Write the structure tokens for this entry.
Amino acid sequence: MSRNGPWTREALAAGVRAGDRRALARAISLVEDSDPLAGELVRDLYPETGGAYAVGVTGPPGVGKSTLIGSLVRHVRQRELTVGVISIDPSSPFSKGALLGDRIRLSDHFLDPEVFIRSMGTRGHLGGLAESTLQALLVLDAGGKDIVFLETVGAGQSEVEVISIADTVVLVLMPGSGDSIQALKAGIMEIPDVIAINKSDHPAAKTMLNEVRSILSLDRDRSWRPPIVLTEAGRGENVAELWERVEQHRAHLEEGGQLEERRRKNLAAEVFAVASARAKRHLEETVADDPELRRLLDEVQRRQLDPLTAVREIMEKVFRIDAGNGSDPL
Amino acid sequence: MSRNGPWTREALAAGVRAGDRRALARAISLVEDSDPLAGELVRDLYPETGGAYAVGVTGPPGVGKSTLIGSLVRHVRQRELTVGVISIDPSSPFSKGALLGDRIRLSDHFLDPEVFIRSMGTRGHLGGLAESTLQALLVLDAGGKDIVFLETVGAGQSEVEVISIADTVVLVLMPGSGDSIQALKAGIMEIPDVIAINKSDHPAAKTMLNEVRSILSLDRDRSWRPPIVLTEAGRGENVAELWERVEQHRAHLEEGGQLEERRRKNLAAEVFAVASARAKRHLEETVADDPELRRLLDEVQRRQLDPLTAVREIMEKVFRIDAGNGSDPL
């Protein structure tokens, strides 16, 4: 038996196309392991992708993103849509097995053959998290899922790269998310397509709604004004309304031909993100293996060689880029 | 007159060494403009650096980082230490001129010849924010500043890279910083060296103190247990205590020889961050200029070529890296 078990490339592609759970699970494991077969598989499947609608669900930890996704999955399943969930939030209950405590209800979905839930670790991806997420999304897309939810915790560059592949981005906040409100206000956090304020039975939920609304009202130039929905994910309250807003955003994008444009930009950004992550890894590996490059770092440490000259020498050696010409003369 | 005005490389280096304000300002402007002269200057000055102690002050927008830095500057100046401040927080009042509203008192420091305050934009740095910040820090270091404060908003990879050069990292929170608390709890936010809970006259400040304390108590393995200080920056309350904690952390690092070790790691990380940022920029420029590479992106968009094959072709062409061998066979 080969290391890929009973799966040949053809069998795996056929299994994914048929939406077979074991094939999907195996394919995403290969993606996580950066196995060459994953790349071949995605290459085979790519022409058939584009049918899934990707909904990014982001926000600080603890606001109830997973519970909200659980409720959205239930709602979407009632409409006969098939669903995939990729969670790359290390604090997500999905990542912890999704079977603990009050999250037990999420496990219902694990038994539904038309729902595929998978959490991915945030570490150890050779090509970076953006690459693994993109591949996993393409696998579920080729597997015939109508909707794929991407759950990420909303902080950090790598998470931004992950979420940027989504067609619609939902930001989830809760009363107490003061830092996120400040970040939106300061223009540091990007404006999402839809905002959910979860735990709407909290007395401060309405205050937060008004705060967010007044922040968004400052930006009148958008063709799409992000709607804000008060939800209570645990009881499924306003989840239908939230989903309606997502569908309205989708319709907005589709009407104006903006969906293709957005996907075009997203894919290009993703290609850059993946290539940058690989370049960085190549850099680190090369320096680790090369005594001469390590010596440069020692000289920097001893204040004998300045860091930017070290960068230039490393760039020349690792990438054969002459950083000493053109617009970047340092 | 040359584009650098009256400043030759030698005059600028001499001016920086003398701590001349105009020379420092000019040098940091050159850094911000990615002017070749900045690189030469830093190369000249680097052997003389290492004397400044860098204190990173990070946290969500709106918690009062700038006001706290203002109070710390006043405190440190009373002890006859010279000070530099580099603010790379776009929401900082420093970035807005530091002369507005209730921040007027910060302007006192602008008149003190031993205090140099400079805000830097977060965009437009050819070599990335990490590179500019490192260079600005080295300039102030060579200019004889005893303490350099680096103010960054605590979110995103680029800010993490910026703050990682600091010898001591102070995280500033306030009552209402629920998202940061959740991120600390979830292990998503890195544990800083010192925590300040600002706006300590807020009724919820004590509750937050206890929350943070209980989160930190879970991590018993550190040789340094991050102290938590309740401050009220506007009135300067507990600022002396906060500074004492910073000095205790410094003493802790110096005693065990850990300061050198930390700086060694920080500098190496910085070199990688700068090199990665340059590799990314090189990638984007090359693709923008090359019709064949742009065609790859078009094919990805039309689902004719999968994104990872596109990445491989781009890597081969731009970096002459054969991504098709070794540990990364995609």
Summary: The mean pLDDT of chain B is 86. Chain B touches chain A through 83 residues (CB under 8 Å). Chain B has 13 helices and seven strands. The beta strands of chain B are 53-59, 83-87, 115-119, 147-153, 168-173, 194-197, 228-230.
